[in-house]
Write a structure and sequence with these properties.
single chain, 492 residues, alpha+beta, Muramoyl-pentapeptide Carboxypeptidase, domain 1, Hemopexin, 3 domains, six-stranded mixed sheet, five-stranded antiparallel sheet, 10 helices, globular, disordered N terminus, binds zinc ion, binds calcium ion
Length: 492
């Protein structure tokens, strides 16, 4: 038995001419191996899926004969993208992902530039050319405007409606073949697709009008699908992170604020950040893109950072930098720079003239929190936001007078606070201290002695500063995997 699948052209959505349709063939023996109780329809679905979302330009124009190993290697690419077991065979988990409604833009792209294309301007015009009959026109207009606003809030971009056919972003609702070589597929499957920034069709967004579009919950959310597609229209690629708005499959559960910290960092990488006042204006920084200030404000060596007994009161990441606090002094290390900035804290944050016991940063809110005794400051923009608050407002009981260390776990809503031998978990989304806390540090972080001087989360690991040492802790293995000098990040 020999089955031939002649597949529709699956060039990427870059505005490329379609090249001759590749054939995917599966020899008889191979098919039985893949079938394994699965229907032939599933196999066809999988082949189409891989061809559509995991083929590169060279695959399309290259060899015409496709073997089982080709299928299997593409399947592994897909499994790797979705963080499934890379079995190379069509297991139920893989098939379930393939059957999930999704965006029509491929997950692999032959971008010349890794960051994707971008608009060379910040004022971008848009027009809704055709409407769906699922919703009133005014509702569609409002949802499209809201979806663009998601990106406008996180970047310097401004969007304005235009009546011109030449608007940068043309929004259309269409079914099946709609004139761009990428026909829609009826209900479910592909929901929408979009083109990278550019002339003509570049930046345009098409929605499959065979879907039921909704402003509520019964159907596909036009707001969240549009916000995702506009991400492509601005130059973003698909993300492997399910928290990201740019994850390729449709996710029903989305918070009101659609963007993850990753999305904000990525849009800022293309267009710069929104913040008119950089985080620390004296250094010309912004929270996600930090042009490193060259030259030193302060005489070097005010403090001996390389003393082998050097300890820190608090340590936090902040964008691409790490801040080390000790007394009323601060050292700042940028990830990609070898020089260290240092000076009294007030030189960086004029209204904070105290020792900082604990500090953490929440990238999603581009906000740092600095604790001194039972007070804390919210720092966003150039200065602490208003007056300091009491930590009881975070849900700490009156007996807690001091936080030893605090750390926000990236890509989760959680911040951990360490006080003596216990720790607390705070939910930044719900703004509540969680019920089942405090818990014993020794129970949940075996190998970590108390009290903890400082803590930070970086590159997926917790780093506990204990006196003059820092313990790198793997939360999955639940163990310390490395011990270094606390000042080793400061070039000591
Ligand atoms: Zn997409
Ligand atoms: Ca569809």
């Amino acid at each position: 038995m020999r089955i031939w699948f002649v597949l529709a052209c699956a060039c990427t959505l870059l505005a490329l001419p379609c090249i001759a349709a590749p054939l995917l063939w599966l020899e008889g023996d191979d098919v039985s191996e893949f079938q394994d109780g699965k229907t032939r329809n599933d196999l066809i679905l999988a082949a189409k899926y891989l061809q559509r979302f995991y083929s590169s330009r060279t695959d399309s124009s290259g060899r015409m004969k496709r073997s089982r190993s080709f299928f299997s290697s593409k399947l592994k690419d897909m499994q790797s993208f979705f963080k499934l077991n890379q079995t190379g065979s069509l297991d139920p988990e893989t098939l379930a992902v393939m059957k999930t409604p999704r965006c029509g833009v491929p997950d692999v792209k032959d971008y010349v530039h890794n960051q994707g294309n971008r608009w060379r301007k910040t004022e971008i015009s848009y027009r809704v050319g055709t409407y769906t009959s699922d919703l009133p026109t005014s509702t569609v207009d409002a949802l499209i405007a809201s979806a663009l606003d998601v990106w406008a809030r996180a970047s310097p971009l401004k969007f304005f409606r235009s009546n011109s056919q030449d608007a940068d972003i043309m929004v259309e609702f269409a079914t099946k073949d709609h004139g761009d070589s990428f026909p829609f597929d009826g209900p479910r499957g592909t929901l929408a697709h979009a083109y990278d920034p550019g002339e003509g069709i570049g930046g345009d967004v098409h929605f499959d009008d065979d879907e039921f579009w909704t402003a509520g919950s019964n159907g596909f959310s036009l707001y969240s699908v549009a916000a995702h597609e506009f991400g492509h229209a601005l130059g973003l690629r698909h993300s492997q992170n399910p928290q990201s708005l740019m994850y390729p499959t449709y996710q029903r559960q989305r918070t009101q604020n659609l963007l993850s910290s990753e999305d904000i960092i990525n849009i800022n990488a293309l267009y710069g950040s929104t913040m008119p006042n950089p985080f620390y204006p004296r250094l010309g920084w912004s929270y996600s893109f930090i042009p490193w200030y060259t030259g030193s404000y302060f005489p070097m060596g005010l403090k001996d950072k390389c003393n082998p007994d050097q300890t820190f009161d608090s340590v936090t990441t902040l964008g691409e930098a790490i801040l080390f606090f000790k007394g009323r002094y601060l050292w700042i290390k940028h990830n990609n720079k070898s020089d260290i900035k240092e000076g009294p804290i007030t030189n960086f944050m004029p209204n904070i003239d105290s020792r900082i016991d604990a500090a953490y940063w929440v990238p999603q809110r581009s906000t740092a929190f600095l604790f001194s005794g039972s007070n804390y400051w919210t720092v966003k923009g150039s200065q602490g936001k208003g007056r300091h608050k009491n930590i009881s407002s975070l849900g700490f009981p009156a007996r807690v007078k001091l936080i030893d260390a605090a750390v926000h776990i990236y890509k989760t809503p959680y911040t951990l606070f360490f006080t003596q031998h216990v720790y607390w978990r705070y939910n930044e989304n719900q703004k509540v201290m969680e019920d089942s806390y405090p818990r014993n540090i020794s129970d949940d972080f075996p190998g970590i002695k108390t009290p903890i001087s400082a803590a930070m989360h970086r590159n997926g690991f917790l780093h506990f500063f204990l006196g003059p040492e820092v313990y790198k802790y793997d939360t999955e293995l639940k163990k310390v995997i490395e011990v270094k000098k606390a000042n080793s990040w400061l070039g000591c």
